[in-house]
Amino acid sequence: MTSNAPAQDARQKLLAANAAAANALRQRFAAAGTLVVNLISSPGSGKTTLLEQTAKRLAGGHRLAAIVGDIATERDADRLRAAGLPAHQIVTGGACHLDARMIEQVLSPDAVGAERFEDLDLLFVENVGNLVCPANYDLGEQCKVVLLSVTEGGDKPFKYPGIFSKADVALITKLDLLPYVPFDVATVRAEIATLRPSGTILEVSSTTGAGLDAWCDLLTQRMAACKSITTV
Ligand SMILES: Nc1nc2c(ncn2[C@@H]2O[C@H](COP(=O)(O)OP(=O)(O)OP(=O)(O)O)[C@@H](O)[C@H]2O)c(=O)[nH]1
Ligand SMILES: [Mg+2]
Ligand SMILES: [Zn+2]
Questions:
Q1: What is the C-alpha to C-alpha distance for residues 38 and 171, in angstroms, rounded to an integer?
Q2: Could you say which of 7, 93, 141, 171 is the most buried, measured as most Cβ atoms within 10 Å of its Cβ?
Q3: How many CA atoms lie within 13 A of 49 on its CB side?
């Protein structure tokens, strides 16, 4: 019988090294008073579109930037920059999640454009589109946000419990499409709340703007909380 113990051991070591790097990043962000939000969802749930709309609403009064991960292309960073959000694209070349070392490299003083990531009020990290392993890789964020679009089906929270139990905020996205798809918001809300009783659930549409004020208010409150911890 073959054992998979060596593989499990290697995975434990990898996750432990990631956790150490993430904790160092978290301390650094806390000292700078920067709120870091890690956005996680399956491909196409609306992460980049939400950030485009969020930038329009918040960029005037706050210093914002984004780091965005994809397997290939600079497309998302190009979109975010066009929306006025300074953005750095991490092209993973195949890896289906970001890890803390990748964030550390973007912030390193030697990295091209590293200065854009200093003195921020809010740093968004848009993870690679994937509901599974991004849940296991801490990036030093204060807050994981999971997005679930109404077109993906309401069965997803219980099928992917890892991310829905770890995310402090769940966004039900593409609310404008609700009339066209079977998606029972009350049931989905109840299932998400079962997995994360203390979490916040918001319903949003980046197309109509519904729910975006509540989302931006939540971010503004959390930015203020980060600053008050720094100044105590
Ligand atoms: N109807 C509707 N469409 C939306 C909404 N938000 C995003 N979309 C569309 O959904 C598609 C995917 O949106 P993206 O923002 O690129 O999704 P993403 O999560 O960033 O995708 P990946 O980066 O590939 O994982 C695009 O065609 C968007 O225009 C919304 O609120 N309503
Ligand atoms: Mg995207
Ligand atoms: Zn992965």
A1: 13
A2: 171
A3: 15
Is 0.85 topped by the overall pTM? yes
| Helix 100-107 with 5-32: angle, nearest 10 deg | 40
DSSP, residue by residue, 178-231: GGGS---HHHHHHHHHHH-TT-EEEE--TTT-TTHHHHHHHHHHHHHHHHHHHH
Residue 45 lies in a domain: yes
For residue 109, with 0-12 CB atoms within 10 Å meaning exposed, 13-18 middle and 19 or more buried, which class applies?
exposed
Ligand nearest to the CA of 129: 1
Q: Is the CB of 206 under 6 A from ligand 1?
A: yes
CB 144 within 8 A of CB 174: no
The answer, yes or no, to whether residue 3 has pLDDT greater than 90, is no
Domain that residue 178 falls in: 9-231
List of residues 6+ apart from 185 with CB closer than 8 A: 150, 172, 178, 203
Model confidence pLDDT, tens digit, residues 137-186: 999 999 999 999 999 999 999 999 999 999 999 999 999 999 999 999 99
Distance 133 CA to ligand 3 centre (A): 5
Say if ligand 1 is within 6 A of residue 97 CB: no
